[in-house]
């Protein structure tokens, strides 16, 4: 279990990156940390990894208190692996040597067995003797992850691990890597900007807003019951609407074009998105167009009726 109690961090330049952040995460769960740029996500990961000092509060991983670089000659902990955004494999080392780097002290046979098992989990058994430059971006990312977990950490802290991958590859690599980490029973904390990924993968979601904890919960709960518009936005599009002088927040899938619908709108734009159209509606009293999903293309300027599910 990871337990944070009232963690605060102000950098030397006076920037308050985190303020009184508290939460708990169960072992072997995958937790996504979401939040705007500058909301403190990376700072949070580094404090949990013991790579940054908090100015206040405590971090416990199971029974052990995690402290920052000012308490250690060599910052960080062997059982907490932090993988930064700009991870680097050693380009002049083979895949096998990259994975084996952190376990060179293991007995030879144990080390070989561990590398073999990790290569199998990454589905890269045949690449042991290749060099990173001979691999695709996604394959390199899988090797970087295998290298990060080679010495059997309890916790892996990943800072935007999939952001450099293009879309078709991203889903596959993410599945492989998260699958591998789940198989190994590792607790995962992951910073991401991708709502679809967080919904599909996370057991828990933590949303940070200007260094404060905005919301924590499982994806379904946070998606359906966001605490604020800020929290709602991180898990998918949301419309802020005014009806009968009341402000409401409605997901696009809850707006249904329906001739018997109670509300009237004018189609502003209809964009083909593959599975459906993103249709923007102009609704009285609402200065901004409202997004809904339609199966068919609706002509610009048409008047439609809609209902709310
Ligand atoms: N080493 C540092 N020294 C001073 N200020 C810093 C340092 N690192 C981060 N900050 C500031 O602390 C705040 C939080 O930064 P952090 O990198 O944790 O945010 P983030 O949510 O990870 O952002 P992004 O999504 O852009 O990576 C920002 O205002 C940032 O400018």
TrEMBL record:
Residue stretches making up the ABC transporter domain: 2-235
GO CC annotations on file: ATP-binding cassette (ABC) transporter complex
Gene3D superfamilies assigned to the protein according to its UniProt record, in alphabetical order: P-loop containing nucleotide triphosphate hydrolases
Pfam families registered for this protein in UniProt: ABC_tran (PF00005), TOBE_2 (PF08402)
The name this protein goes by in its record: ABC-type Fe3+/spermidine/putrescine transport systems, ATPase components
GO molecular function: ATP binding; ATP hydrolysis activity; transmembrane transporter activity
Highest taxon of source: Bacteria
Keyword Nucleotide-binding: yes
InterPro entries cross-referenced by the UniProt entry: AAA+_ATPase (IPR003593), ABC_SmlMolc_Importer (IPR050093), ABC_transporter-like_ATP-bd (IPR003439), ABC_transporter-like_CS (IPR017871), Mo/tungstate-bd_C_term_dom (IPR008995), P-loop_NTPase (IPR027417), Transp-assoc_OB_typ2 (IPR013611)
Keywords on record: ATP-binding, Nucleotide-binding, Transport
UniProt cross-references to SMART domains, sorted A to Z: AAA (SM00382)
Record bears the keyword Transport: yes
């Amino acid at each position: 279990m990871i337990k944070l109690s009232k963690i605060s961090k102000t950098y030397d330049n006076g920037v308050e990156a985190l303020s009184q952040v508290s939460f708990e995460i169960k072992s072997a769960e995958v937790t996504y940390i979401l939040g705007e740029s500058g909301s403190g996500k990376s700072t949070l990961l580094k404090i949990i990894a013991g790579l940054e000092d908090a100015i206040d509060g405590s971090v416990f991983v199971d029974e052990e208190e995690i402290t920052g670089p000012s308490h250690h000659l060599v910052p960080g902990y062997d059982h907490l692996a932090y993988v930064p955004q700009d991870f680097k494999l050693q380009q002049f080392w083979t895949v096998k040597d990259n994975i084996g780097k952190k376990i060179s002290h293991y007995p030879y046979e144990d080390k070989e067995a561990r590398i073999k098992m990790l290569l199998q989990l990454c589905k890269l058994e045949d690449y042991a003797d290749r060099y990173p430059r001979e691999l695709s971006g996604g394959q390199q990312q899988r090797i970087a992850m295998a290298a990060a977990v080679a010495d059997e950490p309890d916790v892996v802290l990943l800072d935007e691990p999939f952001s450099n991958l293009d879309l078709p590859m991203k889903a596959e690599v993410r599945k492989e890597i998260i699958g591998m980490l789940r198989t190994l029973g590792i607790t995962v904390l992951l910073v991401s900007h991708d709502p679809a990924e967080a919904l599909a993968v996370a057991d828990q979601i933590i949303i940070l807003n200007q260094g404060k904890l905005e919301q924590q919960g499982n994806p379904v709960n946070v998606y359906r019951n966001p605490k604020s518009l800020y929290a709602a936005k991180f898990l998918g599009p949301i419309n802020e609407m005014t009806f009968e002088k009341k402000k409401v927040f409605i997901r696009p899938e809850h707006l249904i074009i329906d001739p018997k619908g109670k509300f009237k709108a004018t189609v502003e734009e209809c964009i083909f998105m593959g599975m459906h159209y993103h249709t923007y509606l102009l609704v009285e009293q609402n200065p901004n167009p409202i997004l809904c999903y339609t199966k068919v293309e609706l002509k610009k300027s048409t008047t439609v009726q809609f209902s709310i599910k």
